[in-house]
Sequence to fold (103 residues):
Amino acid sequence: MGVFGITPHPSPPPQGGGRDKNVASPPHYDTLSESLSQRGHTMADKVRVAIVGLGFGAEFIPIYQAHPNAEMYAICRRDKTELDKVGDRYGIKTRYTPIMPSC
Fold:
């Protein structure tokens, strides 16, 4: 399986050979939406995004918030004060600090 559980198009058979006749070929989908619909999903389904590390990672928050197929769901940062500043700034309610101090 490929990214997001989508089976990619099968590769062409190698020169001078071919696929083992006893092995079934994976299903072929022409589009991402066709592949998703076969699995009971639509392009309207949103991907929930969580960002761990809000130094440079915070730069991506407005990008995900503006994307029609993404939900900026959660953020994580070691420093709770800084975590809350970023969460308040971008309106993100779900916030985590690492459980282990070495994270």
Q: What stands out?
A: The radius of gyration is 20 Å. Residues 29 and 101 are 45 Å apart (CA to CA). The longest strand covers residues 70-76. The first helix runs from residue 32 to 38.
